Amino acid sequence: MGELTITTWNVNSIRARLDHVSEYLAEHEPDIVCLQETKVEDALFPKVPFLELGYEVTIHGGRALCGVATLTKSKPAETHSGFLEGPDDRHPRILNVLVGGVRVYNLYVPNGTSLGTEPFEFKLAWLERLREEIASHYSPEEDIVVVGDFNIALEDRDVYDPDALRGKMLFTDEEKARLQAILEFGFTDCFRKHEPGPGHYTWFDYRTQGFERNEGFRIDHVYATGSMAERCVKVVHDPKPRGWDTPSDHLPVTATFSV
DNA sequence: ATGACACGCCGAGCGTGA
Predict the structure, then answer these.
(1) Which of A58, A84, A123, A165 has the fewest CB atoms below 10 angstroms from its CB?
(2) Is A108 left (phi over 0), alpha (psi -120 to 50) or beta?
(3) What is the pTM of this model?
(4) What is the rounded distance in angstroms from the CA atom of residue A56 to the CA atom of residue A50?
């Protein structure tokens, strides 16, 4: 009986955070690492430190904004960048790899900017397109793990002040409904399998000293189909890198599965 | 609070993030 560990981390620029990510991976050695907001075009992605740590490096980036990277200890059998079908996405936000028999979606869901804007409508449409893709290509009987920065907090216990934040960005009924529709495929929230209580967040605003006050949002998620969710033994939001010099505004989230 | 901080942009503020 072994373990499979998957880390998801919005790093807010892989080049600015190279030391933090390298240190975290050297210490924890997760089997699969899903990074978001790498903010670098593929030709300039700093692959070498990760190759030296023993990872296969699959990247999907662009200039300045967005970008995702999936690092795997073993070589993926399949890799897909962006949506499987139809027109190219507006930004690089999706990597879908099959590794060790597990399909791993690494997502950077659109931010949405603010209510009533075109980017907000784009976010909703993007989530519906993802739902349709997963439902039409895969079965909930398969081992599928969907991780990343969803830019949505689903429940009251996922935000520090639900009454004040209700209906505001990241916590609107429209965003929650689109995420819920994706989960109806047959996904379990692996963190909530182990921790029902409030006060556990993954993103803290730099500007409000949110981390120091534990005023955050749980918007980075690990969702898994039944077979994988059953085998999830823990999910950890690691606050340690947030204490390092010039940290990302997101914590790394690591899920452990018995395999 | 129309705020804050941090990023990449190439060289200064601006757009963006959430």
Answers:
(1) A84
(2) beta
(3) 0.97
(4) 8
* φ/ψ of residue A9, rounded to 5: -155, 120
3-state secondary structure of A29: coil
Other CB atoms within 10 Å distance of the CB of residue A259? 14
Rounded distance in angstroms from the CA atom of residue A259 to the C1' atom of nucleotide B15: 45
Catalytic residue ranges of A? 108, 149
Instruction: Say whether the CB atom of A117 is under 7 angstroms from strand B.
Output: no
Tell me the pLDDT tens digit for each residue of A64-110.
Answer: 889 999 999 999 999 999 999 999 999 999 999 999 999 999 999 99
Q: Give the domains, in start order, of chain A with CATH numbers.
A: 3-258 (3.60.10.10)
Is strand B less than 7 A from the beta carbon of A136? no
Does nucleic acid strand B have an atom less than 7 angstroms from the CB of A151? Answer: yes
Phi, psi (deg, nearest 5) at residue A66: 60, -145
pLDDT score, position A89:
95
Chain B bases closer than 7 angstroms to a protein Cβ: 3-9, 15-18
- Rounded, the Å distance between the CA of A145 and C1' of B17 is 25
Return d(Cα A188, Cα A172) in angstroms, integer: 21
A217 touches strand B (CB under 7 A): yes
Helical packing angle, A173-183 and A118-137, nearest 10°:
10
Residue nearest to nucleotide B8 (CA to C1'): A64
